[in-house]
Amino acid sequence: MNLEGLRIALGGIVANKLRSGLTMLGIMIGVASVIVLVAVGAGSAAASRQRLEALGSNTLTISTGGFGFGNRGGTQSRVIRIEDSDVVALSDKVEAPSVKLVAPIVAANSIAAVYDGASTTPQQFQGTNEALFSIRNYKVESGVAFSDADVVAHAKVAVIGLTVAKNLLGDNADANTLIGSEVRFGNANLTVIGILKPKGTNGTQDQDNIVLAPLTTVRDLISGSGTSVSQVIVQATNRKATDSAQTEVLNILLSRKAGSTSTSFLVLNQASLLQTQDANNRTFTVLLGAVAAISLLVGGIGVMNIMLVTVTERTREIGIRKAIGARRSDVLGQFLTEAVLLTMLGGLLGVAAGLIGSRYTIVDVKPVVEPYSVFLAFGVAVAVGLFFGIYPANRAAQLRPIDALRYE
Amino acid sequence: MMLAEAPPLARNVIDIRAATKVYGMGDIQVHALRGVSLAVERGDYVAIMGASGSGKSTLMNIIGCLDAPTEGEYYLDGADVNALGDSELADIRNRGIGFVFQSFNLIPRTSALANVELPLMYAGMKKAQRRERALAALEALGLADRVDHHPNELSGGQQQRVAIARAIVTSPAIVLADEPTGALDSVSSTEVLRIFDQLNQFGRTVIVITHEQEVADHAKRVVRLHDGSIYDDVRRAAVIGPPPMAPGRVA
Asked: Which residues does chain B have within 8 Å of residue A325's beta carbon, measured at their own beta carbons?
């Protein structure tokens, strides 16, 4: 058979163009939707991963008690606070070899910024050091970042996010005009020295609605904060070292803080957050793929249906072929080849449609075509043709020649 | 040339013994054949006659290995057909027997050449050789200029000649024809019968199922069936020698 059989099968397909075309369409839609939906899943996974990584990958966020609220009041007999000296201890390369950078954060809440009559309250107003810029991937788009020297000097400077600048200047103004200007924060005037490169939203928060200033400067603004910090951001040397960095940091803090237990500190591990997110995304992608696979299955049933019709329609031809010496295997091969050819052509069209469809942005997600999904979808399509072709082809092969010849 | 090559072998190419065929089960049983015994010698030209319902089609299906008898034995070229499996029967239909049907039974949308090549393809012959033999067979039947035509572009007579070419292209010992002239006009009929005469003259065993006396007149032996039994068996000419109506024969 081989080439010969392929030609005969192709002849059978061409003989009923519309019918074959519609059957192929079913397979094509199935294959294309598998490719596109898996690509959408992968695309949204990549996007959310990017968002998380924008926060700074391989980082740990350490705070005491409630996350983001700083210290609770003095009603407890022993209030555990992370002090400046602890921050220095965390940078110890011997005690904490997996730690690369450490940035303390003093958060000030509800501090209004006033400039030229306009007023806004940034979502985040944080006092920190130079290291935070590198840990969180903050890029200064124009102007400069403050340095550790500014921290020591209590320099009255600030780096602001684009949203804050726009809130002060109006949407259409050039944010750069703010550089060098004094903006009033609470009861102090800070000179804007840099504008952050926009990061967009992380899903829940506008990451550009932020003001960063030297740690000491922010402490001066809010009275009575002493030498404690709200949070410490620690960057591990690499992603794999995040877990060991977490252990090291906790051990240092536990040994330094009398009466503290491991529950005294709240550690947010960005890497494990990413892992969880990845797992969720995988589930999402598999689900999308499964939905698409069902449509592929439906396409397969269409193939079976049409092959049954074809076999019935060509019963007489099967009889003739058997009368002149076709064996069961010849007839089986002929119809199986036809079914597989049908799904293969449909599959190829589906791959083409899937690849084209994945070039467009779908519900705000830029699809990322996974090569495995292309091979899988095409392979499954061919397997579907084989599986659903076997029954009709076998039916044809089992026909007794005399019955087939008599069929009208 | 190809019409001339027929394999010599066992004397009785067909040997059917007490064959019965019953259709249906339980109360409504139809006895199509009630114990038919028929031996056909190599090189004979047999016409099997009978009214419809006499069992002649059933007999032809059994001879052609398209159907098996309910009871009885069938030896084809000395081989017990009942003992053969599906693929061996396919081989017999492919190489041992050439079929010619009343309704031609060519495969539609397929050229005359491809139709004739088909049995050779199932026999596993190479493309080039297949083509050569199929062309030779078509040429021998005067269809050299029609090889690329599809069945629906050919006249009835031409279609039947293509079917005959297909039947003889594998050089079978037996040519089995079921009402070969039933769907043809008289000119084409005469032509087809002349071809059968010729085939027989070249040594091939020819069995024709018919209800027309003119067709039977060409045979060397006429077997008549009635109600599933043979009731008349007349030899009209010797097995060796030309058939009675062959051109040039002195009556």
From this structure: 90-91, 93-95, 119, 122-123, 170
Q: Are residues A285 and A201 in the same domain?
A: no
Closest CA relative to residue A104, chosen from A223, A271, A242, A218: A218
Total domains in chain A come to 2
Q: Which domain holds residue A199?
A: 109-122+136-215
- What would the two tokens of residue A246 be? 């977490």
**Could you say which of A11, A316, A329 has the minimum Cβ distance to residue B109?**
A11
Cβ under 8 Å to A: B residues 105-164: 105-110, 118-119, 121-123, 127
What's the average model confidence in pLDDT over A20-47?
90
List all residues of chain A from 117 to 176 with a beta carbon under 8 Å from chain B: none
Q: pLDDT at position A66, please?
A: 45
Q: Inspect the interface and report whether the beta carbons of A325 and B119 lie closer than 8 Å.
A: yes
Most confidently modeled range among A90-104, A196-210, B38-52: B38-52
Find the length of chain B. Answer: 251
Q: What is the pLDDT of residue A72?
A: 47
Is A322 near chain B, with CB under 8 Å?
A: yes
d(CA A224, CA A73): 12
Residue A68 lies in a domain: no
The CATH fold of domain B10-235:
Rossmann fold (3.40.50)
Contact between A401 and B66 using a beta-carbon 8 Å cutoff = yes
Q: What is the mean pLDDT of residues B10-25?
A: 86
**What would the two tokens of residue A230 be?**
């709200």
In angstroms, the CA B37 to CA B223 distance is: 11
Instruction: Report the residue of A324, A329, A334, A400 to disrupt the B interface, i.e. the one with the largest count of B CBs within 10 Å.
Output: A324
Is A197 a domain residue?
A: yes
Cα B132 to Cα B143: distance, rounded to the nearest angstrom: 14
> How confident is the model over B78-132, as pLDDT tens digits?
889 989 998 899 999 999 999 999 889 999 888 999 999 999 999 989 999 999 9
Question: What ipTM is given for this predicted complex?
Answer: 0.89
Indicate if A284 and A399 belong to the same structural domain. yes
Do both A45 and A113 map to the same domain? no
Q: Where are the alpha helices (DSSP H) in A225-360?
A: 242-256, 270-313, 315-323, 328-357
In a domain, residue A95? The reply is no
Q: Is residue A386 part of a domain?
A: yes
Pair A309, A401 in one domain = yes
Q: State the Cα–Cα distance between residues B182 and B101, nearest whole angstrom.
A: 9
Span A360-370, average pLDDT: 85
